[in-house]
# Entry
Amino acid sequence: MGKIILRRENVVKETGSEDTARALEAKGFIRYRGDSGKGAAVLTDTEQGKTEQELQDARANLKAAEKKIAGLTQELEGTREQLEAAIKKNTAGTGKKEKGGSGR
# Structure
């Protein structure tokens, strides 16, 4: 008999025994047939640990990037407010000429 591959969420188990496969199915695992019968990619514990660490690192990098974006957004808002204040100050002395119109 060939290998029987079962999966539950991100956990993959492999067995050669139908009895073991049924016991795993009772625990919520389902049989995994892979892509078009080519077989399933099974991660070793080391590979799974490495993949989980990479995921945690990516999440940490994402949080850091979100904080940086929030800071830059706040800085940009402050710059916009400064520019608007400068425009108001500069146009206040020139009168209504800056507001458009042909003057006729």
